[in-house]
Design goal:
The protein has 183 residues and is an alpha/beta fold. The protein has a single domain, classed as 3-Layer(aba) Sandwich (Rossmann fold). Helix content is 45%, strand content 14%. The chain contains eight helices and five strands. The chain is globular.
Length: 183
């Protein structure tokens, strides 16, 4: 027998934001592992993967970002509405994208992975900054495009000062406080 929507309950969404190279994907992977250990299934919506999967023809200009983030938020809303927990692993440089998600997803928290631009450039796991300096990319948040950090994130971690396990502990504690997870 299939569970009804009321038995499943709404899923929750975690939006992990920060500059490219700040440690969003590392934290998202740790959270996925921690939640799975509790028997809580989660789908990571990583922006680069989702962009390649859903709209590979979109660029990174203003209108294309608008389209992409609206689509990403819609996917997250659909999943959480149907009981699937979601981690948005996405910079979303403009605060209003994350606020749009907060407005339409009932069980939502925002995590800010704070990291100085210089450290993000030093890490550069996807060669984003190197490619921007070579002129390949022209709209990198925090470099050529604005990045608006959250005003009141539920959790803020400094990825230069702590370790990913401690960062995951902070998020798991907040999820527990909000009643999204048990113990």
């Amino acid at each position: 027998m299939k569970a009804s929507k009321s038995e499943i309950g709404p899923g929750f969404a975690i939006w992990v934001t920060g500059l490219p190279g700040s440690g969003k994907s590392t934290l998202s992977a740790r959270l996925l592992k921690r939640l799975a250990a509790k028997g809580i299934h989660v789908q990571i919506l990583e922006s680069d993967v989702m962009r390649d999967l859903l709209v590979p023809w979109l660029g990174y200009g203003h209108d294309d970002r608008e389209r992409f983030y609206h689509l990403l938020i819609s996917v997250g809303e659909l999943l959480t509405h149907n009981g699937v927990n979601v981690i948005f692993d996405a910079t979303a440089g403009q605060r209003r994208f994350r606020e749009e998600a907060r407005q339409i997803i009932d069980r939502f928290i925002e995590i800010y992975v704070k990291c100085p631009l210089e450290e993000c450039e030093r890490r550069d796991p996807k060669q984003i900054y190197k490619r921007a300096q070579a002129g390949e990319f022209t709209q990198v948040p925090g470099l050529q495009a604005p990045y608006e950090p959250p005003l009141e994130p539920e959790v803020e971690v400094d990825s230069t000062a702590s370790d990913p396990e401690r960062e995951a502990d902070a998020v798991m504690g907040r999820l527990k406080d909000l009643g999204f997870v048990n113990n």
